[in-house]
Amino acid sequence: MNQSLNELLEQFNGHLNDAIEDTPLGTSLEESMRYSLEAGGKRIRPLLMLATIKMLDAQKLTSGMHVALALEMIHTYSLIHDDLPAMDDDDLRRGKPTNHTVYGEWLAILAGDALLTKAFEKIALTPYIDADIKVELIKKLSQASGHQGMVGGQTLDMQSEHQHIPLDILESIHVHKTGALIQFAIEAATIITSIRQTTAKQLIQFSQHLGVIFQIKDDLLDVYGDEAKLGKPVGSDVSNHKSTYVTLLGEQGAEQELQVHIQKAEAILDTLSMEFDTTNLKYLLTLFYQRQN
After folding, report:
1. Using H for helix, E for strand and C for coil, what is the string for 32-49?
2. Are 159 and 165 in contact (CB under 8 A)?
3. How far from 188 is each of 37, 48, 137, 155, 219, CA to CA, in Å?
């Protein structure tokens, strides 16, 4: 990772370490929340948000930090719940035992619930952002993470297990389940910086390609990934009888579809580079399609 992104990541992780304060209740809830929130990972979504803010208006980085924390809390809660026996039933996440294997199912569920609600508190209490912008961010994050976004996509995904689904349904699953929070990362940056609509639309289109790239690569890694690097078993899609880009298009077809979206994303960045320094976004795009975990 380049120096600029490393600096953003260090700043973010510094804030993340203090994101969950203790309460006088004396329960293990905060410990369980921190266990998953601080479990590592590339922090792709908050980095994407912060890098976009830096590109558009670096003076707004402080304003965006709490929103980036909120986004990571939403993402982490979804992973805790996805790993539960009632859904994916995974024992490993990021190379560590999943939350429910350490703390038990009931506390894992509550830790996810608490992270979800904490995210909106973070935005509501964010300094340096006007109230109308906070309301817009809360609305967009609610839509991206709720029944119109991630949760709706996860529901369609679960309902589609053990059956062959057409490509358009698969695309709909991942636009909502995976793509919605990736789009929010970039759309939030355009809201925080109040950038003009033409630029915002270009960046949102870029984020939509990123979401597809992320999912196709995820499906490919489930076929040929290194379990030690992934931090979770490979082949789980097959064992769970899930339709994926690989099962529907074949490995070669999935690779070709991946390249189509990479080229479209690169074209958008080339256009934006006439006005902005897109170095960090180009690096993150590369990270999306070259990642090994």
Report:
1. HHHHHHCCCCCCHHHHHH
2. no
3. 21, 10, 6, 25, 27
Q: Are 79 and 38 in contact (CB under 8 A)?
A: no
Q: Domain count of the chain?
A: 1
Per-residue pLDDT of 48-71, as tens digits, reads 999 999 999 999 999 999 999 999
Locate the DSSP E strands across the chain: 92-93, 96-97
Give the CATH number for residue 270. 1.10.600.10
Do residues 280 and 272 touch, judged by C-beta distance below 8 A?
no
Percentage of residues of the chain with pLDDT beyond 90: 80
* Strand, helix or coil for residue 93: strand
How large is the C-alpha radius of gyration of the chain? 18
**248: closest CA among 168, 174, 159?**
168
Q: How far apart are CA 230 and CA 35, in angstroms?
A: 19
Instruction: With CA atoms as reference, report the closest residue to 45 among 81, 9, 18, 14.
Output: 9
H or E, element range at 180? helix 179-193
Predicted pLDDT of residue 115: 98
- Structural domain containing residue 217: 3-290
Residue 62's Cβ-side half-sphere holds a number of Cα atoms within 13 Å equal to: 4
